[in-house]
Amino acid sequence: MTDRLHRIARVAALLGAIGSVALTLYAGRGNSLPFLMILMSLWVIAPFVGYALAGRFSARWSAAARTALDVVIVLAAIVSVVVYAVAALKSPRPRATPFVAAPVFAWVLMLVGVPLVAWVRRPSNLPHP
């Protein structure tokens, strides 16, 4: 199951990154500051790059931590694309708030949720009665 979940997470990360950048660029199509659009694109893709880097180092992690990382990135990809799509397609003049907040949400999930799951699921050194 974990290999299948890992493959799904990798595809979700790729599609999430592509969708996030595409929707960010679409939402900012009327912006006259191309440098700002580059910065925003880098910001929305950052959690997916973070997942890729974490995936490189996760071989030594517990199975629970690796699974949590994969689940987090699938959730982050789905939530990000939905939030960006609503922001970009529902409003003639999209606000920047969703494009700033969604990556923060993804980072918090990765940086707090994954270690928390690893800590909760750690093997206990207490003797069993």
Task: Sum up the structure in keywords.
single chain, 129 residues, mainly alpha, 4 helices, 79% helix, 0% strand
Task: Briefly say what this structure is.
The protein is built from four helices and no strands.
Q: Can you give a write-up of this model?
A:
The protein has 4 helices and no strands. With 129 residues, it is mainly alpha-helical. The protein has one domain.
- N- to C-terminal distance: 32 Å
* Main sheet makeup: none
Mean pLDDT: 89
Number of domains: 1
Tell me the Rg in angstroms.
17 Å
Question: Which runs of at least 5 residues are low in confidence (pLDDT < 50)?
Answer: none
Structural class by SSE content: mainly alpha
Tell me the helix content: over 70%
Helix and strand run? HHHH
In percent, how much strand structure appears in the residues? under 5%
How many H/I helical runs?
Answer: 4
What best-fitting shape do the alpha-carbon axes yield? Answer: elongated
**Multimerization state:** single chain
Quick one: how many beta strands?
0
Helices and strands in order:
Layout: H1 2-27, H2 34-57, H3 63-90, H4 97-120
